[in-house]
Amino acid sequence: MFARALASKDWSTLRSLLHDDLDFRGMTPRQVWEASADELITDVLRAHWFEDDEVIEELVECEVRPVGDCINLRYLLRMLYKEGPHLIEQQAYYRAEDGRIKWLRVMCSGSMPIEATPAEG
Fold first, then answer.
1. Cα–Cα distance between 87 and 76 in angstroms, integer?
2. Averaged pLDDT for residues 39-57
3. Per-residue confidence band for 51, with pLDDT thresholds at 50, 70 and 90
4. Contact by Cβ (8 Å): 92, 2
5. What distance in Å separates the CA atoms of residue 94 and residue 85, rounded to the nearest whole number?
6. Other C-beta atoms lying within 10 Å of the C-beta of residue 84
7. What is the dihedral of CA 22, 58, 80, 44, to 10 degrees?
């Protein structure tokens, strides 16, 4: 539900999934983030990661699996920017309390042009 709410920029549903006492940390290619539940929505997601004028075209993939005492959520978003289509992958690990996410760690790939091919290793 988290990834679907994010992909549709349904900020009120997303906020309802977060515990009021959220412990959030995130990492993007250029910055480390910490935020409360309200700050995550307004100061991180809406103001930096997925600004209101940016178009999320599609939730391309979404996988959920348990990892120890956490849940691992991996999702891939197709974005449409002026420069063309891009992909963003995020890996999240979370723990819930009372049915809401209380502990959340997110690592973001950053925006990657779709036409780019990964280097072979």
1. 7
2. 91
3. confident
4. yes
5. 29
6. 10
7. 0
Could you give the C-alpha distances from 69 to 1, 85, 93, 97, in angstroms and in order?
A: 19, 36, 10, 12
Per-residue pLDDT, averaged over 88-117, amounts to 92
End-to-end CA distance of the chain, in Å? 35
CA distance 74 to 35: 20
Give the separation between CA 87 and CA 37, rounded to whole angstroms.
25
Confidence of residue 35 (pLDDT cuts 50, 70, 90): very high
Q: How far apart are CA 104 and CA 116, in angstroms?
A: 30
- Residue 69's SS3 state is coil
The dihedral built from the CA positions of residue 49, 94, 78 and 52, taken in this order, carries a sign that is: negative
- At 75, the amino acid letter reads Y
